[in-house]
Amino acid sequence: MTQQTTDQETEERQGFIPSERPATEKSVIRQYAEAFLIAIVLALVIRTLVVQAFKIPSGSMLPTLQIGDHILVNKFLYGAEIPFLDWHMPGLRNPQRGDIIVFKFPQDEGRDFIKRVVALPGEKIAIRGKQLLVNGKPVLEPYATYLDRAIQESPHSPRDNFSPVVIPPGQLFMMGDNRDYSMDSRFWGFLDIKKIKGKAFVIYWSWDRERFRPRWERIGKVIR
Q: Following DSSP, what letter does each residue of 172-207 receive, concatenated?
């Protein structure tokens, strides 16, 4: 008994107790592991319900969005799908005319498209000589641009002349701001509101691949 006590006192004077070291190391590893798992869960929750990043790969939304713009999308504004719960989280409001939204491309849901809402459920839309009409009235669109002066006639192309149609319930009519070079609802039809991923709201990074430099003036720009 005396020898055992002496050995313990010697160890304490030397500044260590062997039996406590494994527990301490295990505790540190566990803390890092828990922090890592929490970070992953939070990232997944934020990406699923709150905000998600996207990159603009084409010029269909010029001049509003440039090729190489990196944007953030608000996912809770219109609501979001919760895959692991098979539930749709209600949104704060419905899409409005003029909103720029990211959505699943109706003809290939593995791809994401970004366009502007130009007509809502129940509205009648038509295009005459490139002019957008909603409920028979011309729509002022300062964001829209037309780079091709030629007028394409129906039925060869719906680009510049689109026959009147009423938007069904639960559907939207989408168009790119670069009207002459956008594959949108004129060609593939209406968008089911349930396919929306979110509303674009800010550019957080922009890269000019032609000049090989950042577009500093676009970073932080609010998307309208």
A: EEEE-SBGGG--SHHHH--EEGGGEEEEEEEEEEEE
What is the structure's pLDDT at 156? Answer: 83
In this structure, whether the domain defined by 51-218 belongs to CATH 2.10.109.10 is answered with yes
Is the pLDDT assigned to residue 85 strictly greater than 70?
Answer: no
**Omega of the bond prior to 63 within 30 degrees of 0, cis?**
yes
CB burial readout 159-169, b (16+ within 10 A) else e = bbbbeeeebee
User: What's the mean per-residue pLDDT of the chain?
Assistant: 85
The SS3 call for residue 186 is helix
Residue 8 to residue 17: CA distance in whole angstroms: 8
d(CA 60, CA 58): 6
Considering 75, 115, 197, 199, which one is annotated as catalytic?
115
Query: Is the pLDDT confidence value at 65 over 90?
Result: yes
Q: Is 60 known to be catalytic? A: yes
Three-class secondary structure of residue 189 per DSSP:
coil
pTM of the model: 0.78
70 Cβ contact list (under 8 Å, min separation 6) = 53, 54, 55, 56, 203, 204, 205, 206, 207
β partners of residue 208: 213
Written as six digits, the tokens of 104 are 């699943």
221 noted as active-site residue: no
Catalytic residue among 27, 55, 60, 185: 60
* CA dist., res. 182 & res. 62, Å (int): 10
Helix (H, G, I), strand (E, B) or coil at 26: helix
